[in-house]
């Protein structure tokens, strides 16, 4: 009889332990809002969730890249638009000073204006975004341009490289958001330096040659501004794709990982009732003695 009673006790102890474990698991589901809290809950599901988390993390980084890239592109567009305005003003001065009605003293004053434009171009060519130079190619920590003498500039040295800075917008895709400053500014600096020299020398013929050069510089920069606009469109398109993928991955993750709270609470309540019933039943059985069977 002792062996039988011990066996009954162990059976009820096992059942109570099993119900307790089930109740603990459901309570954790309700508390966390997740049905997968550890590997044993759903090994296959957990693997899928981890993969989706990795995808979401990668998309988040690409989203940050796109935001940074858009900032770079807009900064470049603003800088180059200001350069275009300066070229337009410099060209207007050149046209006026080429005219025979202008005299030497007037051209000397105009030369000072051109020097001011050179300093402005130098500043714009060294535009930064969060401390990084956008016209230095991939040498973003290096100031790309420097005039040899701010008071009497004769050359402008370029210290960047010819590889445009890019951002990653996908597993195998990138977009240029930085610029090869040498290709954009070098001839413009030389044109303005030459124009300044011709104005100081009162050389109307030389001034005339700079007008065509300024037109070429303007057209080149205008083409660059158009390229920037096209790249912004690419980033906008990619951002929409990223947003859609984020939503899809998040929904898939929720379907696999998250618990139906209403259903979980209902299961918890049912398990609690089962636990209470089992506890009451085992308590009653454990209090019986051999006298109760006589």
Description:
With 294 residues, this protein is mostly helical. It has a domain at 62-231: f41 fragment of flagellin, N-terminal domain (Up-down Bundle), CATH 1.20.1330. It contains 6 helices and 6 strands. The protein has helices spanning 2-32, 43-98, 104-125, 181-200, 204-257, 261-286, and strands at residues 128-129, 132-133, 145-147, 156-158, 166-168, 174-176. It has a two-stranded antiparallel sheet. A two-stranded antiparallel sheet has the order 3-4. Strand 3 and strand 4 form a beta hairpin. Helix 4 (181-200) packs antiparallel against helix 5.
Low-confidence stretches: 289-294
What's the CATH architecture of the domain at 62-231? Up-down Bundle
As a percent range, the share of strand residues is 5-15%
Helicity, as a percent range: over 70%
Q: Strand order, biggest sheet?
A: 1-2
Mean pLDDT over the residues: 83
Rg computed from alpha carbons, rounded to a whole number of angstroms: 38 Å
In sequence order, what are the helices and strands, one letter per element?
HHHEEEEEEHHH
Structural class assignment: mainly alpha
| Straight-line N-to-C gap | 13 Å
Q: Tally the helices.
A: 6
Shape: rod-shaped
Largest sheet: 2 strands, antiparallel
CATH topology of the domain at 62-231: f41 fragment of flagellin, N-terminal domain
| CATH homology group of the domain at 62-231 | f41 fragment of flagellin, N-terminal domain
- State the name of the first-level CATH class of the domain at 62-231: Mainly Alpha
């Amino acid at each position: 009889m002792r062996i039988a009673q011990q066996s009954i006790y162990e059976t009820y102890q096992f059942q109570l332990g099993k119900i307790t474990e089930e109740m603990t698991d459901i309570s954790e589901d309700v508390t966390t809002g997740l049905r997968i809290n550890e590997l044993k809950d759903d090994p296959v599901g957990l693997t899928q969730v981890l993969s989706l988390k990795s995808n979401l993390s990668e998309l988040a980084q690409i989203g940050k890249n796109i935001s940074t890239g858009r900032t770079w592109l807009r900064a470049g567009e603003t800088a180059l638009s200001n350069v275009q305005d300066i070229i337009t003003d410099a060209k207007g001065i050149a046209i006026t000073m080429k005219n025979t009605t202008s005299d030497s003293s007037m051209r000397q004053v105009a030369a000072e204006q051109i020097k001011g434009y050179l300093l402005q171009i130098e500043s714009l060519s060294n535009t930064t975004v969060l401390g990084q130079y956008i016209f230095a190619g991939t040498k973003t920590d290096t100031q790309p341009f420097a005039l040899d003498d701010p008071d009497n500039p004769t050359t402008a040295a370029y210290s960047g490289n010819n590889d445009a800075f890019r951002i990653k917008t996908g597993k195998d895709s990138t977009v240029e958001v930085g610029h090869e400053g040498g290709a954009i500014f070098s001839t413009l600096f030389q044109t303005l330096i030459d124009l300044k020299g011709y104005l100081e020398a009162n050389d109307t013929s030389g001034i005339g040659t700079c007008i065509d050069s300024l037109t070429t510089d303007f057209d080149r920069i205008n083409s660059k501004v158009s390229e920037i606009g096209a790249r912004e469109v690419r980033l906008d398109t990619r951002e929409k794709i990223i947003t859609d993928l984020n939503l899809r991955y998040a929904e898939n993750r929720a379907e696999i990982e998250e618990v139906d709270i209403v259903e979980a609470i209902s299961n918890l309540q049912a398990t609690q009732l089962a636990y209470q019933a089992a506890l009451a039943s085992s308590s009653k059985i454990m209090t019986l003695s051999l006298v109760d069977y006589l």
